[in-house]
Design a protein that fits this description.
Strand order of the largest sheet: 5-4-3-7-8
Structural class: alpha/beta
Shape: elongated
Bound molecules: iron/sulfur cluster
Number of helices: 13
Low-confidence stretches: 1-7
Radius of gyration: 22 Å
Strand content: 5-15%
Mean pLDDT: 94
Helix content: 40-55%
């Protein structure tokens, strides 16, 4: 099975301007090179420009978030003294109401935008002084309507750890959706859990155990749909945080334990050195992971062969080379 999952493609929503489309207020774009040059071959974009879709033209007067008398942030067009909050919210709710049909595995938002920005968007007070504590109106609806969707801003994706984690989550979401597509059963949930065990463990050991307990203690009479919903909620929480070096080291050592007995002394020392050097920051994660993958394949370890941890995303993206 490939990292792309069995059935669908990786459909990712994105603020249109990040793809180089000239939809910004000034007729320009904000092309993001990682999205267009690196990620593009692996995903199917679902571009959206909320401001254009609610009927504001290109170019258009600037809009911004402004603190209303009740303290909440409103989306306004100062030049026309127009409040666009309800219009934007109404459109976003309608659009995102059909989220299931869109089959999205994630979303990349444009930072700082009063519509698309996910965090620290400027909100102006009565005296025109901005505080960076807002969230774009479209982003707010997206995060509320799709709490399990991996969502990031393009700015945050410049951080190699956040980037790697986000892409790993996109591919995990594809596998989850493929599993759902086949029909959720207890056996399939167990299989999903087994496959993602080390991916979760690297991020949060306690969370990974909670996921196992959730499935292990479920009563046979419990509806499988509620079990899947509870699992997805916890899984999302665990996967949200990128793994630390310590988390990776734990998993690498744990996995090495499965293959070590069958290795000769030199191979065992090489693997152990690679893990140690990774922990010291002397080697990138790809080195011990590649070594492990090699031994796992050679020994045909079925449990480890299926682990998403060893191939969380296509190798050509080289995301493990930078963490
Ligand atoms: S940030 Fe969002 S609303 Fe603004 S131009 Fe880009 S896609 Fe359109």
């Amino acid at each position: 099975m490939t990292a792309h999952g069995r059935n669908g493609s990786i459909r990712v929503g994105i603020s249109s301007c990040l793809l180089g489309r000239k939809v910004r207020y000034d007729g320009g774009h904000k092309r993001d090179r990682f999205a267009t040059d690196v990620l593009e071959p692996y995903v199917e974009w679902v571009p959206m420009c909320p401001e254009v879709e609610i009927g504001l033209g290109i170019p258009r007067p600037t809009i911004r978030l402004q603190r209303g008398p009740d303290g909440t942030a409103r989306l306004v067009m100062p030049s026309k003294e127009e409040d666009l909050t309800d219009r934007m919210r109404g459109w976003a709710e309608k659009k995102l109401g059909a989220l299931d049909d869109m089959d999205l595995c994630g979303f990349i938002l444009k930072k700082d935008s009063p519509s698309c920005g996910m965090e620290r968007v400027k909100v102006y007070d009565q005296n025109d002084v901005p505080a960076r504590d807002g969230r774009g109106v479209f982003a707010e609806v997206l995060l509320r309507e799709a709490p399990y969707l991996p969502v990031e801003e393009e700015g945050r994706l410049n951080d190699p750890r956040l980037r790697e984690n986000f892409i790993a989550r996109l591919f995990a979401m594809r596998r989850w959706k493929d599993m759902e597509g086949e029909g959720v059963t207890r056996a399939r949930l167990m299989e999903f859990h087994a496959r993602h065990k080390f991916l979760c463990m690297a991020r949060n050991q306690a969370g990974s155990r909670r996921l196992g307990r959730l499935l292990g203690t479920a009563q046979s009479g419990d509806p499988v749909e509620s079990l899947a919903a509870a699992y997805l909620e916890e899984f999302t929480e665990v996967m949200r945080r990128p793994p630390s070096i310590r988390g990776h080291t734990n998993v690498l050592q744990h996995m090495a334990g499965y293959v070590s007995d069958a290795l000769d002394r030199a191979d065992r020392a090489e693997l152990s050195d690679a893990i140690h050097s990774y922990r010291q920051g002397l080697l990138p994660l790809i080195v011990p992971v590649t070594l492990l993958r090699h031994h796992v394949r050679r020994q045909e370890q079925p449990y480890l062969l299926e682990q998403a941890y060893l191939s969380p995303h296509p190798h050509e993206l080289m995301l493990l080379n930078h963490v």
